[in-house]
């Protein structure tokens, strides 16, 4: 799954969740935006926040709420729960398990 924050100089940044059925990876894809714009967009969307240029936090409940309605796999909920359990085991959780640490990468659409 990819949490994208994209927008242009004259656009309001947009947060969207893409690749909702791919639960083998999770990262934050950022378009041509400042760190402040990315952090503000994530916070305004209730999706999380930016820690630094390389790391963000994504809220687990917000991620699920954004992705689950668009999922097509019958076992998606179980696979999502397994992804969160694995993230916890790997030490990628924050905020008492409410958020996940994610890597920041350039957005393909940037």
List the helices and strands and how they pair.
Layout lengths: L1 E5 L7 E5 L8 E4 L4 H11 L2 E5 L2 E5 H8 L8 H14 L3 E2 L4 E8 L4
Parallel strand pairs: 1-3, 3-7
Antiparallel strand pairs: 1-2, 4-5, 5-7, 6-7
Structure commentary:
By secondary structure, the chain is of the alpha/beta class. 30% of the residues lie in helices and 31% in strands. It has helices at residues 35-45, 60-67, 76-89; strands spanning 2-6, 14-18, 27-30, 48-52, 55-59, 93-94, 99-106. Strands 1, 2, 3, 4, 5, 6 and 7 form a seven-stranded mixed β-sheet that branches. Strand 1 (2-6) and strand 2 (14-18) form a beta hairpin. 31% of the residues are buried. The mean pLDDT is 91.
Task: Supply Rg.
Answer: 13 Å
How far is the N terminus from the C terminus? 17 Å
β-strand number: 7
Number of domains: 1
Mean pLDDT: 91
- Strand percent estimate: 25-35%
Structural class computed from helices and strand pairing: alpha/beta
Helix-residue proportion? 25-40%
Largest sheet: 7 strands, mixed
What is the overall silhouette?
globular
Poorly predicted parts: none
Sketch the topology as an H/E string, one letter per element: EEEHEEHHEE
Q: In DSSP terms, counting alpha (H) and pi (I) runs of 4 or more, how many helices?
A: 3
What is the gist of this entry?
The protein is built from three helices and seven strands; from the N terminus they run E-E-E-H-E-E-H-H-E-E.
Features:
single chain, 110 residues, alpha/beta, 3 helices, 30% helix, globular
